[in-house]
Structure to design on (292 residues):
């Protein structure tokens, strides 16, 4: 049974003989009731304070939990930041390495481009040089043709020429003096067909021997390759050249026909060489139709 200060104050007792003094008992009950009331009030106050403290503790627990969660999030963020920093450092290193590698590649490319430009310039110079050499050689052959033709005209009344060679006889290459001494026909050596073939090949090889492998453009590659061939094909070509020369002009010596020069130069001959070939061919055609 729970007592209140009012219950203590209004508590009644039975009267008995030789009992306690009613006034003293009542006074004591009033004191007890008053003290009990204070204790009850304090108890209620303590209960209220405990309840409030419990609520505060719960709030603090929630706050601590939130703080712990925030701390964990901060730690995770710090880990992410560390990873990002590491990745940034790695990316900077990779970027630096890539830039260095790119610089090396660009430098190599520039060097290769410069080398290619130098090679192209060198090839152009060699092409021009080879074209000049070819032109000089063909012009020299044309000059030889003119000299031989003059000599052939001089000796035509006294010596019928029936064989064509690639090299004029020694007696024809000497310029005649003003002497009227008659030329001995028997002293003139007529070149044989085999000598003609040999002299023709030697003339081509002599021209090619002065040219380095790197100097030879594409248009002369076929000539070198054709000279290295052997067998029936080369023999048939030599025979055809000699037959064509004999048909072209029985008084002309030591000169290649247009078709023969084209075979030597290949199908991709340069324009200058083609012009020279046409010029030589024209001269040979003139000699072909020249009245005897």
């Amino acid at each position: 049974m729970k007592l209140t200060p009012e219950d203590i104050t209004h508590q009644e007792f039975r009267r008995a003989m030789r009992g306690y003094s009613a006034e003293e008992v009542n006074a004591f009950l009033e004191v007890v009731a008053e003290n009990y009331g204070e204790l009850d009030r304090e108890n209620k106050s303590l209960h209220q304070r405990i309840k409030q403290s419990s609520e505060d503790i719960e709030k603090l627990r929630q706050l601590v939990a939130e703080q712990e969660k925030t701390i964990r999030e901060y730690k995770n963020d710090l880990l992410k930041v560390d990873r990002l920093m590491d990745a940034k450092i790695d990316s900077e290193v990779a970027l630096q390495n890539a830039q260095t590698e790119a610089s090396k590649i660009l430098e190599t490319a520039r060097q290769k481009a410069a080398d290619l430009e130098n090679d192209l310039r060198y090839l152009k110079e060699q092409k021009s040089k080879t074209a000049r050499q070819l032109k000089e050689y063909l012009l020299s052959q044309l000059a030889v043709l003119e000299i031989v033709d003059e000599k052939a005209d001089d000796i035509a009344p006294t010596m019928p020429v029936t064989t064509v060679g690639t090299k004029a006889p020694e007696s024809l290459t000497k310029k005649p003096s003003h002497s009227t001494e008659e030329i001995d026909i028997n002293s003139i050596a007529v070149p044989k067909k085999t000598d003609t073939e040999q002299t023709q090949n030697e003339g081509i090889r002599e021209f090619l021997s002065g040219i380095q492998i790197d100097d030879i453009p594409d248009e002369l590659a076929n000539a070198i390759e054709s000279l290295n061939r052997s067998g029936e094909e080369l023999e048939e070509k030599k025979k055809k050249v000699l037959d064509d020369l004999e048909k072209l002009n029985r008084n002309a010596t030591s000169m290649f026909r247009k078709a023969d020069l084209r075979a030597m130069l290949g199908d991709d001959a340069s324009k200058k060489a083609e012009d020279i070939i046409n010029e030589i061919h024209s001269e040979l055609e003139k000699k072909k139709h020249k009245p005897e």
Remarks:
- Residues 138 and 276 are 7 Å apart (CA to CA).
- Residues 158-194, 211-217, 249-262, 264-269 have pLDDT under 50 and may be disordered.
